[in-house]
Amino acid sequence: MAHRFHLALPAGDLDDAVKFYCDLLGCSKGNSESGDSDSWVDINFWGNELTLHASNPNQSLGGVRHEVDMGKVLVPHFGVHLSASEFAALKQRLNDQGISYVDEPYIRFKGSDFEQETFFISDPAGNILEIKTMKHPDKLFD
Fold first, then answer.
1. Which end of the chain is more exposed for a tag (fewer CB within 10 A), N or C?
2. Taking Cα atoms as reference points, which of 44, 45, 131, 21 lies closest to residue 84?
3. Residues 31 and 58 sit within 8 Å (Cβ to Cβ)
4. Does the model's pTM come out above 0.85?
């Protein structure tokens, strides 16, 4: 369990959030607590602990776009690096379900040690996720 990343986010309606993260993305549900406005659920986000807190589903989370090599990306965002096969399977599942991309799949840093395919999607509460696969994952922090 050492070196796991933990992130807690407002998630709007928790039933919608669990369907998105578990049924669509393929994550699994962990511990949870029910209460009037203090409900939360832990999601196994590819080995990391994502805690989703019930929040006003009508509340805008905002965000601004920052310039990067591929254009302007929404910040804040979070995400995960997947193997090429996991990435392809998830991308296919999203396409099969008609999920709209915030930013379409794109190859960044082509031909370099940091080459990656990435895309951005939004969860039901408006949290932005970046999903990527690295061509050379062992080179990320050399």
1. N
2. 131
3. no
4. yes
User: Which CATH code is given to the segment(s) 6-53?
Assistant: 3.10.180.10
How would you write 2-51 as a 3-class SS string? CCCCEEEEECCCHHHHHHHHHHHCCCEEEEEECCCCCCEEEEEECCEEEE
pLDDT in tens, the chain (142 residues): 578 899 999 999 999 999 999 999 999 999 998 876 669 999 999 999 999 999 988 887 878 888 887 788 888 999 999 999 999 999 999 999 999 999 999 999 999 999 999 999 999 999 999 999 999 988 888 7
Q: Calculate the alpha carbon distances from 107 to 46, 71, 104, 110, 111 in Å.
A: 22, 12, 10, 6, 10
CATH tag, 64-139 = 3.10.180.10
Give the span between the Cα atoms of 14 and 34, in whole angstroms: 10
Sequence-separated (6 or more) residues with CB below 8 Å from residue 64: 74, 75
